[in-house]
């Protein structure tokens, strides 16, 4: 296991575990900081979906910065167990849920203000992410980390894209 540091908010400076696995890839600190600077105004009180959650670092960062609830979707059972452990250690179980399974099969119990999608770059397909759009509230935002040129996503309008080395972060609004 390796550790990831929470960069801001209530849990700033605390560390969470990240599974050492080829099935997950933690977002770099610079990219994570940029992502949260791009969506800072949307976070207070938001319901957040962390798709392709890995360690849960992005959803936990959102909770640390004022989101009221985060749902984590992760298909790797080992990674999902790490997310549960991280939520337990930070006493966030009442503010979060974990759905173990593929994003393609996810059924949300409610809709979300923010969806953060950081899919594996070696298996990137925009169609899987498009399936999440139905869970986004009108006026909500989707943040997508992607390895290629900015994709069009049906039902959403691109607001901005930033590039950091091999990572591109795009923000869309519904």
UniProtKB/TrEMBL annotation:
Molecular functions per Gene Ontology: 16S rRNA (guanine(966)-N(2))-methyltransferase activity
Xref: Pfam families: Cons_hypoth95
EC main group: transferase
InterPro entries: DNA_methylase_N6_adenine_CS, RNA_MeTrfase_RsmD, SAM-dependent_MTases_sf
UniProt-listed Enzyme Commission number(s): 2.1.1.171
The entry's keywords: Methyltransferase, Transferase
Source organism: Candidatus Nanosyncoccus alces
Coiled coil: none
Family matches, as SUPFAM superfamilies: S-adenosyl-L-methionine-dependent methyltransferases (SSF53335)
Lineage: Bacteria, Candidatus Saccharimonadota, Candidatus Nanosyncoccalia, Candidatus Nanosyncoccales, Candidatus Nanosyncoccaceae
Name of the protein in its database record: Ribosomal RNA small subunit methyltransferase D
């Amino acid at each position: 296991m390796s550790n990831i540091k929470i960069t801001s908010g209530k849990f700033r400076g605390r560390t969470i575990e990240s599974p050492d696995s080829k099935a997950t890839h933690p977002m770099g600190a610079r990219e994570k900081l940029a992502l949260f600077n791009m969506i800072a105004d949307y976070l207070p009180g938001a319901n957040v979906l962390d798709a392709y959650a890995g360690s849960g670092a992005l959803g936990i960062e959102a909770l640390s910065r004022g989101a009221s609830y985060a749902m984590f979707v992760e298909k790797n059972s080992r990674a999902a167990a790490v997310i549960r452990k991280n939520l337990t250690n930070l006493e966030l179980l009442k503010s979060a849920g974990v759905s173990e399974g593929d994003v393609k099969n996810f059924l949300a119990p409610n809709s979300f203000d923010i969806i953060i999608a950081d899919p594996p770059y070696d298996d990137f397909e925009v169609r899987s992410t498009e399936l999440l759009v139905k869970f986004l509230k009108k006026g909500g935002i989707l943040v997508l980390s992607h390895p290629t040129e900015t994709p069009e996503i049906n039902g959403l309008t691109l607001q901005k894209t930033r590039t950091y080395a091999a990572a591109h972060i795009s923000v869309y609004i519904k």
